[in-house]
Automatic annotation (TrEMBL):
Native source organism of the sequence: Paradevosia tibetensis
Xref: SMART domains: AAA
InterPro entries reported in the protein's UniProt record: AAA+_ATPase, AAA_lid_NorR, Homeodomain-like_sf, HTH_Fis, P-loop_NTPase, Sigma_54_int, Sigma_54_int_dom_ATP-bd_2, Sigma_54_int_dom_CS
Keyword line: Activator, ATP-binding, DNA-binding, Nucleotide-binding, Transcription, Transcription regulation, Two-component regulatory system
Protein name: AAA family ATPase
BP-aspect Gene Ontology terms: phosphorelay signal transduction system; regulation of DNA-templated transcription
Length: 513
């Protein structure tokens, strides 16, 4: 390959016996500071002898036509170690003149390099955007082959800012990258406030003790069981435990046992191997265990877990391995289980509908979440916090709840706990003609079966109708539950709705499990 005069004047490292020339003379007079990670790489990993490499002259010759377009080039051998790099690329990377990177694994000089992938797969990556020190470089990577056609290395080119037609791509990429990092930052802020322990409102002694226990449990890594009536905040607390634990940077994945049809639970948990089912869904699907790897898996309503799945869950907890449906391969998973129940699990163990061995596995750390009726002094602060989140008209300054209204709420028994309180406040707010929520409004918003006639307070006719319909639905559900001796599945059947719809309605109306 013909070298330009300036190139010949440059430093000329020996590569496998051939003389190869760096081609940008300017940097020789510039002093560049060695980046700390590169300095470390030199100390730790430098190979003393230069590796075998592809024929550099031949490779550069093949791409000589591209020379005026690229602003840096690099060659690696079949083990992705640098065998040649030109001066312009060295400059772009900030490598000082006296730094010899020959023989170093490419990632130690260019952390995001994909040259290894090209060498390993033998497939080129023709256009890619690679980040280096907050800069975006457009790169092209091509495998090199020996005379017998085997891959013996790869060559990479960098196109930086001189290629005008790449500017729109880079601008768009940069724009999207900024948008993404803004969205990620907002999400992190939102998650942190939504799920922190501070968002569990309450100043009673019961809540103080509960929070102290949650903080202690967050520091440990064992399975935890939260028990308490529906709407007491078990899921909120599970999030808070995760957020305060060492797993906070890992995923938090929730499965509601009652909401997933029984036939799908196994696939939901353990995933599906490709082709496990004939027909449309032949693709592999990850299960919740795999999705929660490195984080926390929250199992809501664990008392509703079918006995066959209980046996499988126990095996995963004992062995730390999962096997996808239709697969023989096992995968290791590292997941913390936090389970929640609104049923009496000990009673379920006694009547053998819940496995004792599974109970002892998940009840390593147990937290009993108190019902709202046992901490009625929290109602004032809960009202303030919940109303803060309740939408209001743009000309309203903020909701004000009158003391008589709070007193009325403190006389209710709250079978649906905080969720029910939130619903009542939302209904009252929807009917309120101003930002003041008084006792009359609360009386109208409380469920009819507690002796208050729905719609007694004149609201809009639409609000009154929706309130009446909701109350009728709630009463039908309560009647069905009573008729079926509390058996939810049977009650759902009586009403002609699915188990998951039934549970959704129980939640909506704050009916305890
Ligand atoms: N102490 C609290 N402070 C503020 N909000 C709360 C509190 N407890 C519960 N909530 C709110 O009440 C609603 C129900 O809470 P959550 O879903 O955590 O209850 P749960 O016990 O898991 O209910 P279920 O057993 O029905 O699934 C959520 O909107 C939650 O944010």
């Amino acid at each position: 390959m013909a070298m330009r005069k300036s190139e010949r004047a440059g430093r000329s490292p020996t590569v496998g016996g051939a003389q190869v020339f760096d081609c940008h003379p300017a940097s020789r007079t510039r002093s560049v500071r060695l980046r700390p990670e590169i300095r470390k790489a030199v100390m730790d990993n430098k190979e003393t002898s230069h590796p075998a490499q592809p024929n550099v002259e031949q490779a550069l010759g093949a791409f000589s036509l591209l020379r005026e377009y690229f602003q840096g080039a690099l060659i690696v051998d079949d083990r992705a170690r640098i065998t040649w790099i030109d001066q312009r690329y060295r400059e772009l990377l900030g490598l000082p003149d006296d730094f010899d990177c020959y023989g170093l694994p490419v990632e130690q000089v260019i952390p995001h390099s994909l040259m290894r992938r090209v060498v390993e797969t033998g497939r080129p990556i023709l256009v890619d955007i690679m980040e280096f020190d907050e800069r975006q470089l457009v790169v092209c990577r091509i495998p090199l082959k020996d005379n017998a056609g085997s891959v013996n290395g790869a060559i990479g080119f960098v196109f930086y800012d001189r290629v005008d037609y790449l500017a729109p791509i880079l601008e768009k990429f940069e724009h999207l990258r900024k948008q993404l990092s803004r969205a990620q930052a907002a999400l992190t802020r939102e998650r942190a406030t939504k799920y922190s322990l501070q968002s569990f409102v309450g100043t009673s002694d019961a809540v103080r003790d509960l929070k102290a226990q949650v903080r202690r449990f967050a520091l440990r890594d064992g399975a935890a069981l939260l028990s308490g009536e529906t709407g007491t905040g078990k899921e909120l607390l599970a999030h808070a435990i995760h957020q305060q634990s060492d797993r906070a940077d890992g995923p938090f994945v929730a499965v509601n046992m009652a909401a997933v049809p029984e036939a799908l639970l196994e696939a939901e948990f353990f995933g599906v191997a490709p082709g496990a089912y004939t027909g449309a869904d032949r693709k592999a699907r990850k299960g919740k265990f795999e999705l929660a790897h490195g984080g926390t898996l929250f199992l809501d309503e664990i008392g509703d877990m079918p006995i066959a799945i209980q046996a499988k869950l126990l095996r995963v907890l004992q062995e730390g391995e999962i096997e996808a449906l239709g697969s023989n391969a096992v995968k290791k998973v590292d997941v913390r289980i936090i389970a929640a129940t609104s049923q009496d699990l000990v009673a379920k163990v006694d009547d053998r509908s819940f496995r004792a061995d599974l109970y002892y596995r998940i009840a390593v750390l147990t937290i009993a979440v108190p019902p709202l009726r046992d901490r009625l002094e929290d109602i004032q602060v809960l009202c303030d916090a919940l109303l803060e989140k309740t939408p209001r008209a743009s000309d309203q300054r903020g909701w004000v709840i009158e003391p008589e209204a709070v007193a009325l709420l403190q006389h209710h028994d709250w079978p649906g706990n905080v969720r029910e309180l939130a619903n009542v406040l939302e209904r009252a707010a929807a009917m309120a003609p101003s930002e003041i929520i008084g006792a009359e409004l609360i009386r109208s918003a409380l469920p009819a079966r507690h002796g208050v006639s729905p719609g007694a307070r004149p609201g809009t006719s639409a609000a009154a109708l929706s309130t009446r319909l909701a109350d009728a639905e709630r009463d039908a559900i309560l009647e069905a539950l009573e008729a079926c001796g509390g058996q939810k599945q049977a009650a759902a059947k009586t009403l002609g709705i699915s188990r998951s719809q039934f549970y959704e309605k129980l939640k909506r109306y704050g009916i305890a499990g």
